[in-house]
Amino acid sequence: MRRAICPGSFDPVTNGHLDIIGRASALYDELVVGVLINASKNYVFDVAERIELLRASTAKYENVTIHSFDGLLVDYCRSNDINVIVKGLRAVSDFDYELQMSQMNHGLSGVETLFMPTNPLYSFLSSSMVKEIARYGGDISPHVPASVRQALADRLS
Q1: 119/46 Cα distance (integer angstroms)
Q2: Are the C-beta atoms of residues 47 and 68 closer than 8 Å to each other?
Q3: Of 84, 92, 88, which Cα lies nearest the Cα of 115?
Q4: Does pTM surpass 0.85?
């Protein structure tokens, strides 16, 4: 069985994330969406909320599962028999950082990284930008699923 992981904070999940998740799910028998737990970060949504928003947003993909993890991604991959990490790239600046991470991950564990260029419709999109727009009452509906838009409105109001 071909398994891959698409890791991230997903605070919140955006249409750019969903573009990569949907395309990657077509390439693998199972795609795990790995929600990072990082105690040093200040999230808008806790891990359970992020998982629930992802589950609702990815329900149409039968081969997508949502799990959380902390610690090293490669340790999670080893423990769960996953040998491919899928990362979306928006710009060259993403590539510079992600290339270093992929080389480190491969050196630590042999796990490969697949880079997928983001659909140009989402090349500017980030969770941070969505949260900032939502904080000031801007329209984020083109950038996130309706459930995420509502959750952000409820949380930030």
Answers
A1: 28
A2: yes
A3: 88
A4: yes
**In which residue are the tokens 């990569």 written?**
20
149 inside domain: no
Contact 3, 28 (CB under 8 A): yes
Asked whether the beta carbons of 140 and 130 are under 8 A apart, the reply is yes
95: domain CATH number is 3.40.50.620
Question: Does residue 12 have a cis bond before it (omega within 30 degrees)?
Answer: yes
Catalytic residues: 17, 41, 90, 127
| Domain total in the chain | 1
Kindly report, residue by residue over 54-77, the tens digit of the pLDDT: 999 999 999 999 999 999 999 999
Residue 152: inside a domain, yes or no? no
The H or E element that residue 130 is part of is helix 127-135
Q: Determine the Cα–Cα distance for residues 54 and 26; give it in Å rounded to an integer.
A: 17
